[in-house]
Amino acid sequence: MTAPFAPVTPAAAHASDGDGPATLVELSDLKVHFPVYGSVIDMLRRRPAGFVRAVDGIDLTLVRGEVLALVGESGSGKTTTGRVIVKLTRQTGGRIVFEGKDVSGLWSQNELRAYRRRIQLIFQDPYETLDPKQTIYDFVAEPLVVNRIDSGEGRRARVISAIEDAGLRPASDFMNRFPHELSGGQRQRVVIAGALVMDPDVIVADEPVSMLDVSIRTELLRLMLDLRRERGLTYLFITHDLSLAWVIADRIAVMYLGKIMEIGPAEAVIRSPRNPYTKALVSVAPSPDPPDAGTRAQRTILEGETPDAAHVPTGCRFHPRCPVAFDRCKAEEPPLFDLGGGQAAACWLVEPGQLPVVDPPGTAAATTTTPVTDAVS
Amino acid sequence: MSAQPAALQPAGRRQNRLPMRLASWLDFGRRLVRRPEGLVGVVIILLFAVLAIAPSLFVGPLETVTKATGARLEPPSWAHLLGTDNLGRDVLNLTVHGARISMLIGFLATLVTVVIGALLGIVSGFVGGSTDTVIMRVTDFFLVLPTFVLALILAPIVLEIIGSGEIVGMRTTLFVIVLVIGITSWATTARIIRSQTLSVKERAFVDRARVIGAGRWHTMRVHILPNVTGLIVANAVLVFAGAILTETTLAFIGLGDPFAPSWGQILGASQDAGAPGLGAWWWYVAPGVCIVLVVLAFTLIGGALDDLLNPKARGRR
Amino acid sequence: MTTDAATDATPDAVPGAMPGAIPGATHTRTLPKLADPDAPLLVVEGLTTYFTLDSGTVRAVDGVSFTLEQGQALGIAGESGCGKTTTALSIVQILPSNAKIVSGSVKLMGIDLVPKSENALRRYRWREISIVFQGAMNALNPVQRVRDQIAEPIEERMGASSAAARKRAGELLELVGIPRARGSAYPHELSGGMRQRAMIAMALACDPAIVIGDEPTTALDVMVQAQILELLEDLRHKLGLSLILITHDLSVIAETCDRVMIMYAGRVAEEGPVAEVFERPRHPYTQRLLAAFPNIHADRRTLEVIPGSPPDLRDPPPGCRFAPRCAFAMDVCSVEVPPEVTFGRVRVACHLYPADGSIAPEVRAAIAGAESPDVIGVDA
Lengths: 377, 317, 380
What we know:
The complex is a heterotrimer of chains A (377), B (317) and C (380).
Chain A (H helix, E strand, L loop, with lengths): L22 E14 L3 H5 L5 E14 L3 E6 L5 H8 L7 E6 L2 E2 L6 H10 E4 L3 H4 L6 H11 L5 H14 L6 H4 L8 H13 L5 E5 L7 H18 L2 E6 L2 H7 L2 E6 L2 E7 H6 L4 H9 L42 H5 L5 E4 L2 E3 L32
Chain B lengths: L12 H22 L1 H18 L1 H5 L31 H37 L1 H15 L3 H16 L3 E2 L2 E2 H30 L2 H8 L4 H40 L7 H10 L2 H4 L2 H29 L8
Antiparallel strand pairs in B: 1-2
Chain C lengths: L1 H8 L32 E12 L2 E13 L4 E5 L6 H9 L6 E10 L2 E2 L5 H7 L4 E4 L13 H13 L3 H14 L16 H12 L6 E5 L7 H18 L2 E6 L2 H7 L2 E6 L2 E7 H6 L4 H8 L11 E2 L35 E4 L2 E4 L11 H9 L5 E2 L4
Parallel strand pairs in C: 3-8, 3-9, 6-7, 7-8
Antiparallel strand pairs in C: 1-2, 1-4, 4-5, 9-10, 10-13, 11-14, 12-13
């Protein structure tokens, strides 16, 4: 019943041509459920009282050379998805396919060695990702040490090259320092160097710039985009900031409570969102526009907050907060419908054959549409 | 690496790294002595350490029954600054040599305690699961063992087995004391280190180590250990103080070695000979004061370390 | 001094509506004695605060001035280290022990708070000015019920009975959008957004004239952020509240504030009505900063890169502190501190706008309109 959709191939300028299959990573019906135990006895007997359904069945494809932004609020499951892809967290169900090979079952250190060389993760907090007791050199060299890649001069050359590629030049100025001697932006560059040193194909970046100042942010982003061009990298960019995704992503996937609500080329998702959640997110995304611009007049501020993933609503999980929900939404969960042009949205209102989308009077939570008032000054 | 001519070698990682690590330890030391309690503690310990390393340099060889230099129970005089004991031995001589024995026992006992405690604490905290449960239950068992009772029971048994004389370069009795202190102290250390390990385990850099494929031993060695070292040192300092006190008590109740008199042993001997009643205060005051000073010094250092390790040092960085 | 002590110890006796109250606002508030009813609500002049570290003296705030009128919302924007939080803390004098207000004045309704003793300041803290700290939602007492935490300052500072305080706490909770029943919850039982609302309720407990919010929405999801900002707007109108909002996020200021003050390295770069400053930024830093924020409603998908990094405030550069990073820096910029010049309701401190108007308008226009070539993004 689900209409599968074809992802849009990014512009030729970014694709590294002829280097292998276009689809690098494919997630099928990926699920990550964390058990919740009522008591210690239950825990010992392995009888969970419930599950936190952090990721609840998603299909995602990552195309070579693209920047795919995975956008969602807290509790959406975006970070968990990233962790599953790099095999930090074990999936409860579904498959992970890398370059055509099923890697879902790979778990031993040996098997994963090859996989880890191809996919790496950049963490969010540059102040915590670096071990305060390790020198920069040791941090960047560690992946090589642990995976027994290279040795001696060859290893050192790789490390220096990674440090310099991350913009810290000359490497000798930084190699022997400790993290507390560097600024936030420099530390994040070190983290990036640590991810680059194994020469991966895919980098999963989990909020890589959200803890940095605005002016540092842009420099780091520039670095990441330059690296994509120079090394033919592919990024899964996880962020809560839709505006940021707008600026740097080829495609955007919007997650809510463990499921993908909408996915497609950035332009399409932002300018013509079809899922009500996406629409609401876009409407409240803050912008530094002067206050009386017409586009900001109507904001859909949803009521309440994202429910906790242990108590996922029935039917469409967004229905309790959706301004345009109706009966079917409470009962059945909509699949992702192909809307053409690589865009897909999970919403009964966009089911093919439906009337063109005109917001019907909502039967669920009231719409909160707040026109911006001119403040008295 | 060394085949390259010096001019072509990049700014050596090896050359620069050592001074960097050394520099951070030196900085730590500097910050320690900047605090008054740290300074006092370090000075006292250094003083006693010097005495302990080369006691003969200061007071000549250890006096024994046959080599006593003075009359019995002489009060302090210019010839014998701290008087003599009931065998005519110079108390100052005994006390300075006692420093070596006490410090040695303290050091070895601390080593045993800390190595076992830290190892088990780190493994237990990091590996978790059933390993953690098992180790913690064993720890609980050792936590409740009464030190002195154990010493009293173990000492004769071990002595029986090994026989008197020397073992691993020291006298058997001392070996037993080190063993006993070690057995009864490691549990507390293990708990403390495990606690810290649990919190370090949650930090992002441990996650990162997993992402790059690091195994458990590598992570424990490279990431957990360096980050609990501060706590290990702070704990070791207090363990040292405790070890000296424990040894003192054990010697006092008779488990000492009269041929290798520690301060506790001197105290014990003076008590047995009835020194307080005889008015020979010089005999027990000297070693007593030394014990107090050393334990105080370690406690002061421990306190200063605690402040230093506390990241919320207000105001001044 | 004795008059001060007498004033500060006893509750006030001068009732009356605040001057210049928002028309339609039904809220009235009593003024402290010594208050000058004709003075603007808050006037900060030449505020200078330094931190003493082992490694040197940090000139965190160096001569900051601004005025807050009754009912206004002022946004103080800038990156980390620019001094915005220190400015806020200096106003209520909740500074760490190694910080000191070196000079300047903070006049609340004409009363200068800077020379006041700690005891005297207590009269004003929380009753005239309250502050919601950064990450405050994590500063709630985990073992006390939320309603009780809000009632506490009411009981202590306003001398109300427990019952009256609890009742008022319930009212405040409703005011910020927390159902009264949830007041008996413990902080960990509430979500992040609810906790932030509770912090706001606590800040309103003693009915202050000014609320300072330090990054009030930074740790929150964008939807919750929109809710909280809407709430603040609502409260402003209902209670005639004046707001000082401190944030690095210009978008938040664009949505909620009347005036904005851009700070850089401890000094004010530009200040004025939000509409004017954002539409026609004059200071080069303001221009770069605006362009460094992604704008989801704009057509261009680029971000401007500002090279370099903020100066070390232990040893700031002479003259204009932004000069080393400024694309339009002239010789005078690294020598003289730029004076503040006023254009209507906008203040700028930049040598491109000298007091005597000596730079030709065409040059200024050309500079203002220049596009920075250093951009990143999909459209770059």
